[in-house]
Amino acid sequence: MDTTYSKFALVYDNLMDNIPYDEWTSYLKKLLDDYDIKEGIIAELGCGTGNITERLAEYGYDMIGIDNSPEMLDIAMQKGAANKSSSLYLCQDMREFELYGTVRAVISLCDSINYITDKDDLVTIMRLVNNYLDPGGLFIFDFNTLHYYRDVVADNTIAEDRDDISFIWDNYFDEDTNINELALSLFVKDKESESDDIYKKYSELHLQKAYTLDEIKEAIAASGLEFITAFNAFTSNAPDEDSERIYIIAREKGKNV
């Protein structure tokens, strides 16, 4: 079974073409504007193929995209070149990322935080974020909720069949560990084959941790960051028991020593 987001990177944008990235970025831009972050350097943890990174670059931010998948970053850099942006992409593990200086904000979207399955690692990431933020800088991130994994996708199979690509997601949620296993099977048409009926199969295993809002707040407090607010995703409403994705805003409040 391949490393997470290795082969999937090749078809990620094709299969995620239903995601309203423009709307998601507009929502994020409003959150940044609300705290008067209208320019400057922003770092994105788990930037993937740069869909959010490059859109924020178009708003005038100086972007740093960080991801541990070289395959995803290759695609992100191609987008940056096409957009003639100055975005910097770094292949780093978010649990030990390094920057050259501080930034006005750090963001992490598209449930990248859920891929951090160890609570101590989550605190480590937030401590790093706190250290690399300008004084009063923001950490804005989202996460999928326990309700989403346990009640919406648990033990479900999600499949889609297209002309050149098909995929199957098999989900299994462990209520003892709150870990969701996503076994991905990809079937990609072999463009080098003379036959239209030849597909290559790739398999990946994705592990995601379901966190409660209280657990996220505890990690923020332990890291030295200051919790500001939480929203039901893409709204200005407080999250509730039916929230599937929650946005968090935290703030730098002094460096760890």
Tell me the name of the CATH homologous superfamily of the largest domain: Vaccinia Virus protein VP39
Class based on secondary structure composition and strand pairing:
alpha/beta
Task: Examine the secondary-structure arrangement and name the CATH architecture of the largest domain.
Answer: 3-Layer(aba) Sandwich
Distance between the termini: 41 Å
Helix content: 25-40%
Strand content: 25-35%
Protein name: Ubiquinone/menaquinone biosynthesis C-methylase UbiE
Keywords: Methyltransferase, Transferase, Ubiquinone
GO molecular function, one term: methyltransferase activity
InterPro entries: Methyltransf_25, SAM-dependent_MTases_sf
Report on the structure:
Helices cover 28% and strands 33% of the residues. The protein has 257 residues and is an alpha/beta fold. It has 2 domains: 8-145 and 211-251, Rossmann fold (3-Layer(aba) Sandwich); 148-209, S-adenosyl-L-methionine-dependent methyltransferases (N-terminal domain of TfIIb). A hairpin with a 3-residue loop joins strand 6 (157-161) and strand 7. Helix 2 packs across helix 3. The termini are far apart. Residues 42-137 form the Methyltransferase domain.
